[in-house]
UniProtKB/TrEMBL annotation, chain A:
Lineage per the UniProt record: Bacteria, Pseudomonadati, Pseudomonadota, Alphaproteobacteria, Rhodobacterales
Annotated source species: Paragemmobacter kunshanensis
Family: Belongs to the binding-protein-dependent transport system permease family. CysTW subfamily.
Subcellular location: Cell inner membrane; Cell membrane
A GO CC term attached to the entry: plasma membrane
GO BP term, pick one: transmembrane transport
Name used for this protein in its record: Spermidine/putrescine transport system permease protein PotC
UniProt KW Signal keyword: no
Membrane-spanning segments: 7-33, 70-92, 104-129, 135-158, 179-202, 237-258
Biological role stated in the UniProt entry: Required for the activity of the bacterial periplasmic transport system of putrescine and spermidine.
Primary localization class, coarse: membrane
Annotated Pfam families: BPD_transp_1
Annotated InterPro entries: Bact_Polyamine_Transport, MetI-like, MetI-like_sf
Keywords on record: Cell inner membrane, Cell membrane, Membrane, Transmembrane, Transmembrane helix, Transport
TrEMBL record, chain B:
The reaction(s) this protein catalyses: ATP + H2O + polyamine-[polyamine-binding protein]Side 1 = ADP + phosphate + polyamineSide 2 + [polyamine-binding protein]Side 1
Enzyme class: translocase
Top-rank lineage group of the source organism: Bacteria
PANTHER family listed in its UniProt record: SPERMIDINE/PUTRESCINE IMPORT ATP-BINDING PROTEIN POTA, SPERMIDINE_PUTRESCINE IMPORT ATP-BINDING PROTEIN POTA
UniProt family annotation: Belongs to the ABC transporter superfamily. Spermidine/putrescine importer (TC 3.A.1.11.1) family.
InterPro entries, per the entry: AAA+_ATPase (IPR003593), ABC_SmlMolc_Importer (IPR050093), ABC_transporter-like_ATP-bd (IPR003439), ABC_transporter-like_CS (IPR017871), Mo/tungstate-bd_C_term_dom (IPR008995), NA-bd_OB-fold (IPR012340), P-loop_NTPase (IPR027417), PotA-like (IPR005893)
The entry's keywords: ATP-binding, Cell membrane, Membrane, Nucleotide-binding, Translocase, Transport
One of the Pfam families matching this protein, by short name: ABC_tran
Domain ABC transporter: 5-235
Single GO MF annotation: ATP binding
UniProt protein name: Spermidine/putrescine import ATP-binding protein PotA
Lineage, uppermost ranks: Bacteria, Pseudomonadati, Pseudomonadota, Alphaproteobacteria, Rhodobacterales
GO biological process, one term: putrescine transport
Length: 267, 351
């Protein structure tokens, strides 16, 4: 069979995709080390905009926003992962039950519904039940939309684990809980970690829903960056974006390797 | 001898499908008992009902007199060796073997010592710190055995444990299994579809088909005195020919063979008329005048044996096995031979 490289137009298509996807990221990354105040002309290599993020006039705002982002991402990813583990056990080990496909659709719905719709609906819902928008509403919204992202790798992992392992544990006098804790959970762990990392990065990155439900005075990193950019793009925004990019790449890579290790240990 | 397992009229249904149609059987303490049958006959379902992975729909399973139907698997003093072993991949061999003891609350030093002893028994002491993935199939199989035997169950269940091994290993494991059973004195219930495995290891065999027990007996019983066509056909090789039963007197029948010769043979059928006769291919010899005549179609040389594929005058295929020796005269294809039936070679079957 002919390799994909030999199809006509492959090179042009590949180059176009790579340039469109990654050129802006590369430009932002390079200019975050720009020594001048301009965002277009190069003034030599410098760390000044990174220093500016931590010590400059906007530093307190960014620090508060980063703290919110990270705490929300940790709590939301942890909760979503716990819920996703329970959901995957019910879906994959729970036998047949009525409304199983409907449940599956419901778990994964947030992946398919346009985010703006969820954002509007969530805001309307919070105001209808009289919940003041703020940290708590952001957290609730984040837990919700993180569930499918945590669910997918966990469910995929669980699907690949034969139920003979749990049966063997039960047969060897383990209670239901012991069989889960000592056998099934360690076997699921690569999926759980991978799901957690994915949920964490999704929460850390989210802008649209967060912007709707955050309330006045409450900022996460993405909304703080957006607010700052509205007053004109300064190189410190590039520095902060580059740092977020680095964190994202780190987490996605971790998630990928954890999954790979998991696949190797599966006997 | 006391009864280890007493299965009384066990029925298992999955929705509208019935996997077990009222199975009853008794297994004695210290017995090597085999459930033998083709796939889908209900043997594994029955084993899973004893282990507690499946609930019985009707009936009772008693373990040393105590009804265990309804108990969770962890409350049954019964352990299982799984078909694919199901060794815990994230635990060392030693931890795998000690797992049951740990769950039973045996203190660390005791359970390590006992698990070590079990590994010694299956000749794997040197592998205690390995992970299961680092062992060969045969070694994993022995770890699975050690793990299931370590908590000293009253009954050990084995679900086709040899099916994943190659032939040489399978033959060696048969001997090892039988020795282990005699050493430990634990009742073994062994599930297999391999009749040779069943015949070589078992004290008694239950032949199952379509959710029912067809016959229970020693290897010799079921091979030499099958009660029906299924058992005769499933165990070993046999010739099933249709015959007319003239009369039945107790356990014997007077039967007319194709070709008109009449013989007396043991019978499992009870009514005169058309029935099937089972004749084992190795219980025949060539003679000058015999009970049957057949035309040789093909001779297959098997080394220790010669197999003659012949056809009766009625058109039915008929197989004969002759032991190979220098004195054996090999009939040429196309010749007609006369066959002498050994005493008790033929047996009348119920359908």
């Amino acid at each position: 069979m002919k390799g994909v490289r030999h199809y006509p137009g492959f090179l042009a298509m590949a180059v176009a995709c790579l340039v469109i996807l990654y050129a802006p990221l590369i430009v932002v990354t390079i200019y975050s080390f720009n020594g001048s105040t301009s965002i277009t002309s190069w003034g030599g290599f410098s760390w000044r905009w990174y220093a500016d993020v931590f010590t400059g006039p906007e530093a307190p705002r960014f620090k508060a926003a980063a703290w919110n982002s990270i705490t929300i991402a940790v709590i939301a990813a942890t909760s979503a992962t716990a819920i996703a583990v329970a959901a995957s056990l019910a879906m994959i080990r729970g036998g047949r039950f009525k409304g199983k496909s409907a449940t599956f659709a419901l778990i994964n719905l947030p992946l398919m519904v346009p985010e703006i719709v969820i954002a509007v609906a969530t805001l309307i819902f919070f105001s209808a039940i009289g919940l003041t928008t703020g940290y708590l509403t952001i957290l609730i919204a984040h837990i919700t939309f993180c569930i499918p992202f945590a669910y997918l790798p966990i469910a995929a992992r669980l699907q690949g684990i034969e139920d003979a392992y749990e049966q063997a544990a039960r047969d060897l006098y383990a209670t239901r809980w012991q069989a889960f804790r000592l056998i099934l959970m360690p076997l699921m762990m690569p999926g759980i970690i991978s799901g957690f990392l994915l949920a964490f990065i999704i929460s850390l990155d989210d802008f649209i829903i967060t912007n709707f439900v955050k309330g006045a005075g409450m900022e996460t990193l993405p909304t703080a960056i957006f607010g700052s950019v509205k007053q004109g793009i300064k190189p410190n925004i590039m520095a902060i974006s580059t740092m977020m990019l680095a964190v994202s790449i780190l987490f996605v890579t971790l998630s990928y390797y954890v999954n790979r290790i998991g696949q190797r240990t599966r006997s | 001898m006391s009864t280890a397992i007493d299965i009384r009229s066990v029925v298992k249904r999955y929705g509208t499908a019935t996997a077990l149609h009222g199975v009853s059987l008794s297994i004695a303490d210290n017995e090597f008992f085999t459930l033998l049958g083709p796939s889908g006959c209900g043997k594994t379902t029955l084993l899973r009902c004893i282990a507690g992975f499946e609930d019985v729909t009707e009936g009772e399973i008693a373990l040393f007199g105590q009804n265990i139907a309804g108990l969770d698997p962890n409350h049954r003093p019964v352990n299982t060796v799984f078909q694919q072993y199901a060794l815990f991949p994230h635990m060392t061999v030693l931890d795998n073997v000690a797992f049951g003891l740990k769950m039973k609350g045996v203190p660390l030093s005791d359970r390590t010592a006992r698990a070590g002893k079990m590994l010694e028994m299956v000749h794997l002491s040197a592998f205690a710190d390995r992970l299961p993935a680092q062992l060969s199939g045969g070694q994993q199989q022995r770890v699975a055995l050690a793990r299931a035997l370590a908590p000293e169950p009253k009954v050990l269940l084995l679900d086709e444990p040899l099916s994943a091994l190659d032939l040489k290993l399978r033959q060696a494991m048969r001997v090892e299994l039988k020795t282990l059973q005699e050493q430990t004195g634990i009742t073994f219930i062994f599930v297999t579809h391999d009749q040779e495995e069943a015949l070589t290891m078992s004290d008694r065999i239950a032949v199952m088909s379509q959710g029912r027990v067809q016959q229970i007996g020693t290897a010799r019983d079921i091979y030499e005195a099958p009660v029906n066509r299924f058992v005769a056909d499933f165990i070993g090789e046999t010739n099933l020919i249709e015959v007319t039963v003239d009369r039945i007197e107790g356990e014997t029948a007077r039967v007319t063979l194709p070709g008109g010769h009449a013989i007396t043979c043991p019978a499992a059928a009870t009514t005169p008329g058309k029935h099937h006769l089972s004749i084992r291919p190795e219980r025949l010899s060539l003679a000058t005048t015999g009970d049957l005549t057949a035309t040789v179609e093909r001779v297959v040389y098997l080394g220790t044996d010669l197999q003659l594929l012949t056809r009766l005058p009625t058109g039915e295929e008929f197989h004969i096995r002759l032991q190979n020796s220098a004195r054996t005269e090999i009939p040429a294809p196309g010749t007609t031979v006369a066959l002498h039936l050994e005493e008790g070679a033929a047996r009348l079957l119920a359908d």
